[in-house]
Every structure is written in structure tokens, then in C-alpha cells.
Predict the structure.
Amino acid sequence: MLSNKRWTIARLPRHNRTMSPLFVLLALTFNPAPAVGHIPRADMGPPAVGPRTELQPSARFRAKPPGKRYSVTVPIGRPKPALPLPAIEGPANPRLPLVVIDAGHGGHDPGALSPHSGKREKDITLALARAIRDDLVASGRVRVALTRSDDRFLVLEERYGIARRLKADLFISIHADAAENETASGASVYTLSEVASDREAARLAARENKANIINGVDLGAHSSDVSSILLDLTQRETMNVASDFARLLQREAADDVKFRTTAHRFASFVVLKAPDTPSILFETGFISNKDDAEFLASAAGQRKVARGVRNAVQVHFARRIASVAPKSP
Ligand SMILES: [Zn+2]
């Protein structure tokens, strides 16, 4: 059959020989012969012209059910095993709340680009995530894990998946926005809603959700599961806690970080869809704006963002603990 395949390709007119690999794939896979490993000896000759019986496979091969006559192969690689979990940093006390910080984008996905400095969102988010981690660890009040601590790509579901597997109490995804209007500036905090609070929020969610799509293949297509989960009461409670934290973050970070007028917005971000982990997406500013870009790229600016997040995290858990009746010893 191998000679037969060569024959198929060799007979193509010259311009067809240079056609896309997809054509070659189809030429090979639509061949009616079974897989190479099961080819009966009689089938190794030239294309069939004689009576059908001449090509009947031996008894050994006849005993097998007929193989598939064609198959379609999509080269997206094997399903990945679950990612190794990141290290948890901070006090070794499992009773302390765990905060997962997610540096947006990474690897082949640079996120937004600053037209001023050429800085990439993925580098700014990683620097901010590290600064926030350092500040939270130094507070000694919470444990912290980063979804990524280097320049790597993670599918959106893997990001909140890490938080869920670690049983995190709070998930904060860090981003930096970009807009065509270079005067747009300031930070916003997004929480999950299937109905976006405004058109801009919907557009931003669509852009951020695109991180999952590579060469037209959606690497994390589970939206139907998520939709049904959204009806769950657990998710409603989770969303309420996330909204409380979003308001708190704006209040606690306002001295250090410039926020937009309507700073708390809602949209359907995939990365916020953990049903049981309160999650927010912190758009720390616009790297398309000169002042914001400089602020977010500077160590001083990153420390200010980190301080704002740390203050909000501390108040958040102090409130949560106070609101829960003390458990019996
Ligand atoms: Zn982003």
C-alpha cells in the first residue's frame, strides 16, 4: 500500500504536489485500505483490476472486523496530564487563607503591547504578580501561590483550575488593558457576570478570552459545563464574595492606584469561572496610556499596586473570619 500512496501523489499535476499538507493528509487517509500494519500481502501489488477474490485477505485478516475506511486527524497533540501544582509560599499553616495570584497571558501570548515602551502585558503582569506575592507573604497573614512564576502559556481553565485544586480562598487575575484612545487610563476590577455591565466590558472579556484560541483551535472549550454551573447556588455565593472583594480592592488601593470612574465592572471572563473560588480580574491600568505604562513598569508602581492588594486581602479575610461563627474546639 505504501507504493500505492506514492503512486497517488506522483500522479498529481505538479501544482497539486505543492498543495497544502491537508490535501496530502486527505489523499492518504481516504485510502480504502486498512492501516499499514494490517495490510494483507495480496494488497501490496498494483491497484485492483481483477476479480475481487484475488484481493481477499488471508484467513488471519478476515477474522478481523472491517477497519475504518477513512479517518480525519487533527494535529493538536495528546491531552495534557494535569499540571503540577505551584508551590504555596508563606506561613506553613494550612488554616491560613490561600490566595492564588494569576499573572495574565505568558509564553506565546504576549497580551497587550504598549505603544510607548513596547512593553508586553505578559511581562508587566508577571512583575506585578511577584510584587503582590512578596507583599502578601511578608504580611504573614495569608498563604500565596502563583499560577505562573515564569514566562509560560496557560490555558484559561488551567489558571482557575490551579486555584480550585489548591482549594484557594481567593483568586486574583492580573492584567493591563490597552485602548486605541491613548488618554484612557486607570484601573478597573472585574467580576463574573454572564451579562456584561457595558459594551467596553464585553469587548474586553472577548479579547481576554481569546487567549485560549490558537490557530483557530479553542484549547478550553467547556463553556456548556460552565453555563450550567452558573445556575448553581454555590456560584452565586462565590460571585457575591468576589463582588465584595472587588469593592474593597478599589477602596483599599485608591490611595496608591488611580482607578477609573466606574471601576467595578462585570463581564463573562473565562478565567473567573471557578464555581467555588471567589475570583476577580484586576485590570491594573492602560499600558496604551503613557503615565499608566510608566507606573506599571516601574518598581515603585508595582509596589503600590501590591500594597493596595495586600490591604484589601487583609480586610477581606478579617471580615470573612468575623462573619463566620466560631467553631467548637
Ligand atoms: Zn490581559
Notes: Residues 98-323 form a domain with the Aminopeptidase fold (CATH 3.40.630.40).
